[in-house]
Structures are given as C-alpha cells and as structure tokens.
Amino acid sequence: MSLPFFVYGTLRPGxxxxxxxxxxxxxxxxxxxxxxxxxxxxxxxxxxxxxxxxAAAxAVHPxAVHPxAVHPxxAAAxGVGPGAVAAGxxxxxxxxxxxxxxxxxxxxxxxxxxxAAPEDPRNLYVRVARDVLRADxxxxxxxxxxxxxxxxxxxxxxxxxxxxxDWLAHVRPR
Length: 174
Description:
alpha+beta; about 30% strand
C-alpha cells in the first residue's frame, strides 16, 4: 500500500530532519491535520498517540484493507488553517514521495522512527494508516508514526502534552 506520510515533528519544514530525510525525495508537501490524536514532547522530538476511544476508528496496520473515509467523530471542525486547531488534533504536513522514491523513503523513515515491524517490541513508533484532513477539509489516507504502545502508556501517565498539537509552535514560541 503506497500512501503519503503525515509528518508532525522534526520532519516538518524548517526542522532538522526535514532536509536530512525528505529533501530530493518528495513531490509535494501540504498542511494537514490528524484528528483523534494527542501530541507529547519526547523530549527532543514529539510523539503522537491515539486519543482515548479513537484507536479502532482510524488505525490500520500495514497491509490491511480499510476504506479511506473519515470516520464519524474524528474530523476536526473548521478545517486545518491557522488558528483552527481542534481539541485532540495534531498539526503537520502531508508528504507525497516522488515517483520512484517511495520504497527508499519508506525504509528511511521506518529506520528514523525506529519502526521494525508490526507489534515488534523494539518499536519506538508504530506506522499505521490513518485519515488526515488537508487544508481544504478533504480527507487523505496517510501513514502516521504513533508512539509504540509501551511509549504511549508512559506518555499518558507522565508525559508533557503539547496542548495545541503543534510541534513547531511548541519549539518556536512567538
């Protein structure tokens, strides 16, 4: 399944991993929002986790077949433009690989995010297919790297929530 990637942290434009991992490999980048998720400070890099009650609604493990529709209750009202952050939404970019670059980009991002395979206990992140919303409100199916279950449990109990879901605003306060 070849999907674009939803990036929300150090892979966003202007962040250190953007040029290291995405430069020359992407055909398009556009603002997007992931509803039904929360963002935590790692520290040093962020982790997205499923908001309570949303894991079954939109998560799909690699290789699974799932309709691309936005699920009821997960779409952020009001679009994804500046100032439209909804509770339980993560701000990021939808990144589409250049033709011929997809397999390499997927491998590089899996390595960066320390994702080995579905349900591998060594995973720092897990890669799942989720619906994200473009700036115009249209849904797009994309790969999202969420905190692995053991990491998500720790974040829920003692992590630092980034309330507005925007890593760039968190690391570059105005």
